[in-house]
Design goal:
CATH superfamily: 2,3-Dihydroxybiphenyl 1,2-Dioxygenase, domain 1
CATH topology: 2,3-Dihydroxybiphenyl 1,2-Dioxygenase, domain 1
Largest sheet: 8 strands, mixed
Low-confidence stretches: none
Strand order of the largest sheet: 2-3-4-1-5-8-7-6
CATH architecture: Roll
Bound molecules: zinc ion
Number of domains: 1
Radius of gyration: 15 Å
Helix content: 10-25%
Structural class: alpha+beta
Shape: globular
């Protein structure tokens, strides 16, 4: 089952300067921000808690990162919408049965969550991430 929008992710060239902008927009306290590196994706990530959801800022750590490629093509901007599910394997099966295909198998993402992306060609060009909290 889909529980909520877990986060909305924005690709940025410079995490520090984007973080300042987003903290100003949201008027949030420093403790609302958590920064981590996701080596497997070659990105540095800042999560800003906004009520029940988060905004995720994604900065590439290498030109090989998918985020670097996205930025080269589009510049800074909206990258994906993440939905929280309590059963990623079941949701993936449900989507495949509807001809909506995941990009690969579920893998470990930021915060140790199990994540999978859906092909934007089949989702009105919105990149969706499904995320399941680690138990
Ligand atoms: Zn994400």
């Amino acid at each position: 089952m889909i529980k909520k929008i877990d986060h909305i992710a924005i690709a940025v060239q410079n995490l520090e300067s984007a973080l300042e902008t987003f903290r100003n927009i949201l008027g949030c306290a420093p403790e609302a921000v958590r920064i981590e590196e996701v080596a497997s994706e070659k990105v540095r990530v800042a999560f800003i808690t906004v009520g029940e959801s988060k905004i995720e800022l994604l900065e590439p750590l290498s030109d090989e990162s998918q985020i670097a490629k996205f930025l080269a093509k589009n510049g800074d901007g909206m990258h994906h919408i993440a939905l929280e599910t309590d059963d990623i394997d079941n949701e993936t099966k449900r989507l495949v049965s509807l001809n909506i295909n995941p990009l690969g198998l579920p893998k470990e993402g930021a915060g140790g969550k199990k994540i999978v992306f859906l092909h934007p060609k089949e989702t009105n060009r919105v990149l969706f991430e499904f995320a399941q909290k680690k138990h």
